[in-house]
Specification:
- The protein is α/β, with parallel strands linked by helices.
- About 35% of the residues lie in helices and about 20% in strands.
- The protein has 14 helices and 16 strands.
- The strands form two sheets. Strands 7, 8, 9, 10, 11, 12, 13, 14, 15 and 16 form a ten-stranded mixed β-sheet that branches.
- Helix 2 runs antiparallel to helix 3 and helix 6 packs antiparallel against helix 14.
- The chain is globular and about 80 Å long.
- The protein starts with a strand and ends in a 10-residue tail after the last strand.
- The chain binds NADP nicotinamide-adenine-dinucleotide phosphate (NAP).
- NADP nicotinamide-adenine-dinucleotide phosphate (NAP) binds next to helix 1.
Length: about 450
């Protein structure tokens, strides 16, 4: 990207800005994917000078060379409240002084969705957005509302101020190497694509287990729970990508059309045994933040079905949870066993696995001959080991998505229609909630033992 960028981060002192945006911004500068004469403007209530904010961002980056890039670029801090129009008048003055006309301007809303309307309203009052400002882009993160109704309201409100092309719904899972690899492996390898349908596939499992608790996100998480936090956004997005048909052209609009077709056909399997759980120390953790338990699930194993003819009858399991034995993540396709009589022992189903954690590998498991005992089969792994080939420092999801926003590419973002449809699935599950008892599990339990 040759053009300097100006990122205005609403919530510039928050966890997201610190953990994700600052490291990604510095890495893009370091890799020369962003010119050093770019700008980052942080906005939040606490008082800080530009120099202090620069130090705050430097402190968020671990690599010495990347720290130097933050030191060398233009960092500004604007203390102010989102409710106060004065904050936005000062922002306008600052942007005039920077002269954004020949730069790419991105508003990154790294704050609760409850502020989106007021921020957009104020930006519009100082003529910084509005449907005529084609050059401006706006990005924001999940949660995209807290129900289907609120997500629809949020979209309606944003579209008063921005055109749809300007709005980027960030689901950083879609920029993860593994998830992008689903897209590539599936759509560009006929051998994989042709194997993905009900005749060959027995089940699909998507698992994202974490070993940590809710930590500083307790306030948000206690209202949301595992299903709204992870399944509504990341897991349903990944599932719909995995089950979608290959369009005749791999353009963002056509891929989104196919994903939406899948999402509209997703339903909760009402006959399945769903599991909701909560780790034992959750209540104690909440108390340290002055919060009360609301019976929130910190673990969910949910079964869905896809009513599209291609996927009818295939079992779909989505699982996610906190304070589990280990951090692991994968998207697994388990194939049906072959319909053939034979005398070999140890036959296992074929599996195609996209690993997220601990390593971003792609693995195919096949039955081959055991070379020592010829009456046995050996479950062989054919592995694409990303780190073995490319080393550990490949480009991170947030670097990719910041670049995608600047380049105006929408392949790796969720559409508003998809988001609303994912809420529909979650609300279908909510109807079953009262019939599912909450299981209490010991901290660091292996997730397969939670039943
Ligand atoms: N953290 C993550 O890894 C992550 C991942 C995915 C999605 N998200 C989403 O991203 C958003 C931000 O998350 P976060 O974890 O960064 O939250 P956070 O740590 O609570 O940060 C919120 C930011 O907004 C500022 N702020 C709050 N109220 C304000 C107001 N009235 N006026 C001006 N500034 C205000 C805060 O600073 P002051 O207190 O100084 O004002 C802070 O900079 C949330 O919607 C979250 O769900 C976060």
């Amino acid at each position: 990207m040759d053009k300097p960028a100006v990122f205005v981060v609403f919530g510039g002192t928050g966890d997201l800005a610190k953990k994700k945006l600052a490291p990604a911004f510095s890495a893009l500068l370091y890799r020369k994917q962003l010119p050093l004469d770019s700008h980052l403007i942080g906005i939040a209530r606490r008082k800080m000078t530009d120099a202090e904010y620069k130090q705050f961002l430097v402190g968020a980056v671990s690599d010495e060379k990347m720290k130097k890039c933050i030191e060398a670029t233009n960092i500004h801090y604007l203390p102010g409240n989102f409710d106060d129009s004065e904050t936005f008048s000062r922002l306008r003055e600052l942007l005039n002084a920077i002269d954004v006309r020949k730069k790419s301007l991105v508003f990154y809303l790294a704050t609760s969705f409850k502020f989106f309307e007021i921020i957009s309203q104020h930006l519009s009052e100082v003529s910084l957005c509005g449907r005529t400002r084609k050059d401006v882009k706006v990005a924001f993160e999940k949660p995209f509302g807290e129900s289907k109704k609120s997500a629809k309201e949020l979209e309606k409100c944003l579209l008063k101020f921005f055109r749809e092309e300007q709005v980027f719904h960030v689901d950083h899972y879609l920029s993860k190497n593994t998830i992008m690899n689903i897209y590539i492996t599936k759509f560009l390898n006929p051998i994989v694509y042709e194997s993905l349908h009900r005749e060959l596939v027995d089940r699909v499992e998507i698992v994202v287990d974490e070993d940590v608790g809710v930590g500083s996100r307790a306030g948000y998480y206690n209202n949301a729970g595992a299903i709204k936090d992870m399944i509504q956004s990341h897991l349903i997005q990944v599932l719909s990508l995995l089950l979608s048909d290959r369009p005749d052209e791999l353009s963002p609009a056509k891929i989104s059309e196919q994903k939406l077709k899948v999402m509209k056909s997703l339903h909760v399997d009402k006959r399945a045994r769903h599991v909701l759980g909560q780790y034992k120390s959750y209540k104690r953790e909440l108390k340290s933040f002055g919060l009360e338990d609301r019976g929130t699930e910190t673990f969910a194993r949910v079964w869905l079905e896809c009513h599209l003819r291609k996927w009818k009858g295939v079992k779909i399991m989505l699982q996610t949870g906190k304070k589990l034995e280990k951090k692991r993540g994968f998207i697994k396709v388990v194939y049906r066993r072959p319909q053939v009589r034979h005398a070999f022992k140890h036959e296992q189903p074929n599996e195609l696995v996209f690993h997220l954690y601990p390593h971003e590998n792609v693995e195919l498991l096949l039955n081959t001959l055991n070379p020592i005992e010829h009456s046995n089969l050996f479950h062989s792994s054919f592995l694409f080991c990303k780190e073995c080939v490319f080393g550990p420092n490949t480009i991170d999801a947030y670097q990719i998505l910041l670049l995608e926003i600047l380049n105006n590419r929408k392949d790796l973002f969720a559409s508003s229609k998809e988001i609303i449809e994912a809420w529909r699935v979650v609300e279908e599950f909510d109807e079953l909630r009262n019939s599912i008892p909450l299981v209490y599990y010991k901290d660091s339990t292996p997730s397969e033992k939670i039943a």
